[in-house]
Structure formats: structure tokens, C-alpha cells
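Weekly modeling sync, notes
Attendees: S.R. (lead), two postdocs, one rotation student

Agenda item 3: backlog of single-chain predictions. S.R. asked that every request posted to the team notebook include the full sequence so nobody has to chase files. The rotation student volunteered to paste the first one in as an example of the format we agreed on. Action items at the bottom.

Example entry:
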Amino acid sequence: MQENPYRLALDIHGIGFKTADTLAQRLGIPRDAVIRAQAGVRHVLQTFADEGHCAVVQAELIEAATTLLEIPETIIVQAITLEVQEERLIAEAIDGQPCLLLAPLYRAEVGVATQLLHLLKSAPPWGAIDPAKAIPWVEQQTGRTLAASQRAAVAQVLTGKVTVITGGPGVGKTTIVTSILQALRAKRMRVLLCAPTGRAAKRLSEATGLEAKTIHRLLEFDPKGMGFLHNTTNPLAADLVVIDEVSMVDVVLMAQLLRAIPAQAVVLLVGDVDQLPSVGPGAILADIIASERIPTVTLTEIFRQAASAQIIVNAHRINRGQMPVTPETSDADFYVITADTPEDIQAKLLRVVTERIPQRFGLHPIRDVQVLTPMNRGSLGARAFNVALQEALNPDATPPGGAVWLDVRARRQGHPDDERLRQRRV
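Predicted structure, as returned to the notebook:
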């Protein structure tokens, strides 16, 4: 520790660069020491990873590390060279630019690609299924007629090894999964359903009638060994693995999951690239689709039941770059309230939460209402809204049998709860 206190940040979980750097200064390690620069470079890369990036352009890394450490750029370059030689960093050209990755993230990315390509090499464990016969049988069993796009998706999964089904809300992704499960359960196939969060797993279970688990629970996370019981040497017992809400799965977790899927199994990836991103680094679903190596079915048709929901209709409009449609009826599920200034927005929001929603829908402003804002600071941020809402609804700061929650999207970092939201109690 006296020789290189920065090893603490490498070897001990929970000790970061700043703690190790403070100790190093007390031990008399020079600020321009190469070992400090090496640790600082790793710290900067980890900061980029916390923001969702697996790789960083080398020039950006050098600039950020030089600013953070306040030492000459030449020492930073030397530190990067040493880290690459010691294989803690991986150098790779991306789109013609020299980039750097933390070694664990590089291995995870390579692992995901390798495992997906390996899964594609074998045939489905259930042998040949004729979709022309299987799909009508499924429709008869479920009493639901599939649209042409849904039929194509079911056929692809029944005949392929790895398939992506993607599309916005209301396009029938869950209907496809249910239809596939109906066909394969008749053949007594072993099916495992999972999702990255507890809430998503619960929704999947309710939709299919089968047990769905979080990925961590499926792999059986071992807190003592900080690893998973299911892996390459102890794979999952499954013929089909369905992974829902893939957009929320980070690259490291996906690598761990794919390692535990046996080579003969079929994998179905379901998700929407416009949904919540992963808390950890990587954009797994978007990258898999963009690679064009994995068969992908993109659903665009909004079905009748979903089309009646203005929230779903407007979600698709916004994704297409169109303005949302303001409902003409008073019983709609989507409303647009215009305001021109931050002060006007805050005043109208407070009125909506404290008066209009309770009066119109009979909802309790403390137990039943949530406010989402994309920022922490500023007059429209979580902190300011928390104060304003507390003054309006709970001025004595005594929780009256409930709590108002102001939820802030935590993009790729922060709170590991089911909805990937940072929640602050008022």
C-alpha cells in the first residue's frame, strides 16, 4: 500500500480513485507520478462508463484526465501506454478513431458477440416446425387471430436460433411471445422467462401466465462470491430463453446471461430501443439490431386495443418526430398543458397535482400521483419540485400515511430499483 496506494482502487470493491488519491497524497506520492496518472486514467474511463459508454476516443480521454489530474499531457500518454501494456485498458479503432476501453467492458462486448454467433450455429432443439400448421393451431388455442407481421415474427422464432422482436408500445410484442410459448409448451419444451428488473419480470409473468424472473435471480447471484452460479460450466436447463425489456440490460449482464445459455437453446430478445436505457454501460439492443447479424422483426402496426390509448399513439408520433395529438374528449389518458416560462410550468404543475388530478380522477395527490422530471437542479428540477410539493402537500413534514415521490430518470447510473428511477421521498 505504501508503494502504490492506488492498488486499493483496483483490488478492493468500494474504494475509488479519490479515496486512494487522498491516501497517496498523505504518503507523499507526487501528483505527477505515473502510478497516479494510471489510476486517474482508469477513473476517467469508469466515469465515462457510468454515463453509458463502453469506449472513449483516446483524445477525449487524454483531455479529461489532464484536466482532472492537473498534470502534463505527456504523463497521461505514458500512463495510457502502460495500462494498455498491462492489459487493464484495451486499444481499438472505432469508426477510424483510436479508442480505449476498460478491459472488463471489452471482454463483455466480445463475449456478447461471440456467444450470439455461437448460438446461431446449431438447429433449434425442437426440430422442424412448420409455421403454416403451427400458427393456425396457436390461433385456435388462444382464440386470437395474428396479424401478418405477428405471424412472420412467430415463424422466425420457431425456425431460428436467435431472434430480436422490437417495436414501440401496442404493436403486439407480448402477443407474439404468448403465441410462441403456446406452441412450444405443447412440445414440452423447457422455457425460461426473464427481464432485467422485478417490475418487468412481473409484467411478463402476468402476460404469459408463466413464472418470469429477474436475470440476477435466474442466474442465481451469489453475494459471497460476487458472481453467478449459472455460467458456461453450469448452464441453464432450457430449450428457449425469452429476455424481455432488453434495452435495459447492460453489456456486462448480457455477457453473463449469454454465457449461461446452452448452445442448443433458442434465444428470443424482446424490447424497444426507445424505452428506458440500461443503468450500466452499453446499448445492447440497439447494437444487436444495427449489426444486422441477428434476425430482427420490427413491428410498427398499432393494434386496435392499443390504438385507443392516446399515450401509445402519441409515443409513436413523438418517435417519428411528430407533435403529440391533443385529445378531444375529457376522459382521455393523455393531456398536454402548455406553459411559456419555468415559473408558469411550476405553478401549473402544482395545480395539476394538488387540485385537477384529484378532482377529475379521484386520485390521492400523495399516494397516487408521481411527477417525473429529467433533471435534478434548476427551478424545474427534482430538488425545487420536492420543496414546492412538500410545502403544498405536507408542510409539517409528517408523512400522512403515504408519500409523494418525485422521480428522476437516472440514465445509466444511480439507483438499482425496478424502474431504474432515482426516487426521492418528500
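Discussion: group reviewed the output briefly. The mean pLDDT is 84.
Action items: rotation student to repeat for the remaining queue; S.R. to check formatting next week.
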